[in-house]
Amino acid sequence: MSKAKVLFRQLGASNHTDKERELNDFYATDPRAVELLLKKEKFAHDIWEPACGKGHICRVLNMRGYNVRATDLIDRGYGLGGVDFLAQKEPWQGDIITNPPYKYAGDFAWHALELIPEGNKVALFLRVQFLEGKERRKMFEQQPPEFVYVSSGRMGCARNGEFNKTDASGAMCFAWFVWRKGFKGDPRVKWIN
């Protein structure tokens, strides 16, 4: 292990590991996180999950009666593969709920807000660290999320959707960032568990 990683571990920065990141940044959302979100928020009947992976978010939404459009850039055997969300131009009349690849999270947030009509919602499951950064601050100032629902009890995302493995990232703090297009005001922080 490198000296830097040893130092980060000693400082409590447990997201610095010796493991390589998953090639396509596929870390599936714990279905419990979706259930907790649905206790706090109501969504349009039609929902697009544009990074559906193996369907962890979609299945919960379907069980709760939502009509879900499931797509992903990579075909993982669930939904329609080969769909690049960031290249989509056609407006979407419903809401968008997803756990995007983290390196494209800001792009997903902006693009989702461009595609939906005024008053509709975008909910992204992201690390709390998404609040950091000068570029994201500009985004938050122009279109602030209405709510940030922090998972106070650690909830993980599983590499390749394999929740039975020990590397489900329960060491990181996640939150649902919920935008309502057109919302102006200060975001409200709440806790979901």
Could you write a compact summary of the structure shown?
The chain is built from five helices and nine strands, in the order αβαβαββαβαββββ. It is of the alpha/beta class and 193 residues long.
Task: Provide key terms for this protein.
two-stranded antiparallel sheet, seven-stranded mixed beta sheet, disordered N terminus, 193 residues, Rossmann fold, single chain, alpha/beta
Total DSSP E strands: 9
Shape: globular
Give a quick account of the main beta sheet: strands, pairing sense, barrel closure: 7 strands, mixed
The helix/strand series, from N terminus to C terminus, equals HEHEHEEHEHEEEE
Flag low-confidence runs: 1-23, 165-169
CATH superfamily: Vaccinia Virus protein VP39
**Cα separation of the termini:** 34 Å
Overall mean confidence score, pLDDT? 83
The CATH topology label is Rossmann fold
Domain tally: 1
Helical fraction equals: 10-25%
CA-based gyration radius = 16 Å
Strand residues, percent = 15-25%
Q: Largest beta sheet: what is the strand line-up?
A: 3-2-4-5-8-6-9
Annotation field: number of helices: 5
Structural class: alpha/beta
CATH architecture: 3-Layer(aba) Sandwich
